[in-house]
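Reading group handout, session on sequence-to-structure problems. Before we discuss, look at one worked example. The prompt was deliberately terse, the way you'd type it at a terminal:

> structure Peptidase S8/S53 domain-containing protein

The input record follows.
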Amino acid sequence: MKVRLLTAIVLLGAVVFAGSNWPDLLRPVVKTTDGEEHIAGQLIIELVPEMRGRVQVSEQDGIALFGIPGLDELNRKWGVSLIAPLWRRPTVDPIAQKYGCDLQYLIQFDVNQDVMPVAADYQNRAEVAYAVPNGYMRFDEVPNDPEYGRQWHYVNLGAAVAWGVAKGRTRVVNCVLDDGLDLFHPDIEANLWINTPEDVNGNGRFDTLPYPDGDLDGIDQDMNGYADDVVGWDFVTGDPIPMPYQTDEHGTHCWGITNAVTNNGVGVAGTTWNSRSMALRCGQGGGISIYAAIGAIYYLVPMNAWSISMSFGSATPYQPMADACRYAWESGLVLFGSAGNDGAEVMRYPACYEGVENVAASGRNDTKASWSNYGTWVDVTAPGEGIYSTVPRLVGSYASLDGTSMSCPLAAGVACWIKCYDTTISNATCIQMLHDACDSMPDPLYAQG
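And the output record:
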């Protein structure tokens, strides 16, 4: 996207954001014989609790070192060039410690190296709790006619009645983990969450110019480990401008479903009627890496977010991602994951992790969408066919898409509306209220519909 490119060029000589320890998440995606995918030449490892406080990352002759002899021996053996922590905040809260969030690291080595023997070597070390590939999870979207459906889903949800009872509150913050969003879309910008300490010119918006003309001064004003994160963070490239790459539209579409600016005489309405949403970019080109998704969760939880929408998945469960989801749930957030679009009775992750609501898709007649996954593990079903929402201005501003990818942010948006109605509500009570408000579905394939 031209705006992103020009901004990056201006900043290149002026501001340093994430430093040299941000991994290359644009490496090739490798597909294994069982169909699962991961980023080439990268592992995520979690160290055992006894290693807490012992890691001193350094570099010697091009090899990244932990400062732990046994691990450094393996790093030299496999030519590890980078060690990137998943937890970047200077302090660690007790729930994060409980799940070892601060003990998780990505290691990066030769892009052509098979990751499995490397993982086995690290897994055999007493210092390592587990070692897994940096899994790549595809978005659960099916493209459709951009004029089909518009916003029929709000009729089925009874949204007009709900909006008559309560509308969005700016202190209720929801988060869509996806491929970024068009920050300056006329139906998005006004509902962006603003990290006030980083808004250095104090105008309540994100100005992507170096200070004093804009907000980018390269200083981590709130000391959370992310400099200049006025509206969020790009976990792919390690900078504070989470705009989508070229024609990527998935994230902007999902973000708009949850929280497009409502009652502004422009475009479409969002489910929450004007709460606030962070801008987070975790992937591009059709999917995300678990490193980026986990990093985003560790970023947003301490920033007092309420909901997380995850419209992606794979059939493989990854322990670090499961730990991140449990950390978010126990910290008081609600999490939603898309069930998948295989049209089959199969489990998908993160939707099937503990603490995550598994969201399947329905059509206009409130029965299962033909392509939606199903099963007793589905928690809730939401409209997912012909959902009309925002897309980047570069590709037309608005479009209609199908997928459990669309159902997921819609369900998350309802949870945000519940929180706006009662800001004292807990995540467990909110989910129970969401279930209680659901209608039974006249479809035998959706036992939990």
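Points for discussion. First: Residues 404-421 form the longest helix (18 residues). Second: The radius of gyration is 21 Å.
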